[in-house]
Structures are given as C-alpha cells and as structure tokens.
C-alpha cells in the first residue's frame, strides 16, 4: 500500500479531476449512473465541484503531516466519504434509480477507501485525561 503522502496525492488528483468534471461537464458524473442531466442537476453538480476542490487542497496541504490525531482524522474522514458514496451508489442501483453503469463507480470508491485503511492507526495514542 502507498505511504500517506502518496495516498494523499492520489486522492488529491482524483478530487481535482472530479472538480473539473463537475464544473465543466456536469452531465458526465450523472451519466456514470445513467441519469438525466436537467439544468437543476447540472447546477447542483457545479456547486458540488467546489467541495471536491476543497478536499484536493486539504489533501495536498496535509500530505507531509507526521503521524498525529489530525492525520488519523483525515484518513477516517476520507474512508467515510468514499464508503458513504459507495453505499449511496449501491442503494441507487438496487432501487432502480441509477443504472448498472454505476457499479464501476462503486468499485472505484471502495478501492479509494481501501487506500486509506492502512493509515487509520496513524494517531498519537498517548495517555490523555
């Protein structure tokens, strides 16, 4: 598994690509789940783009962080994001809201979550009151 620095760089690149996709081609992420892209959905996709940009910046700025509670919190947060997205994707596919093409996205999300699993124990574990 990659070290924390490399894991953060991989995720930052993914989030930067998602930012560009959601901002410039907002119908593309919807097409991944075989969904229509009405103007309202494209508007929300463009707004969500900036969440991805913020996550990319967070990861690039903390990629050199030493083992700490903050670094562990970042790892936990990213696992929660990816697993949550995968669960919502699975739910949408099984309920018939999203198309079968969403399975590829679910697999990628679970793979990205797995990259942070080795870093979950990177907290300080000292004796605190």
Mean pLDDT, rounded to whole units?
92
| Residue windows where pLDDT falls under 50 for at least 5 positions | none
> What is the first-to-last residue Cα distance?
34 Å
Provide a count of the helices: 5
Subunit arrangement of the protein: single chain
Keywords: Membrane, Transmembrane, Transmembrane helix
Organism: Litorisediminicola beolgyonensis
Transmembrane segments: 12-32, 44-61, 73-94, 100-120
Protein name: DUF4345 domain-containing protein
Task: Provide a compact summary of the structure.
The protein has about 130 residues and is mostly helical. Helix content is about 70%, strand content about 0%.
Provide the fold topology:
Elements: H1 4-24, H2 27-31, H3 39-62, H4 69-94, H5 102-116
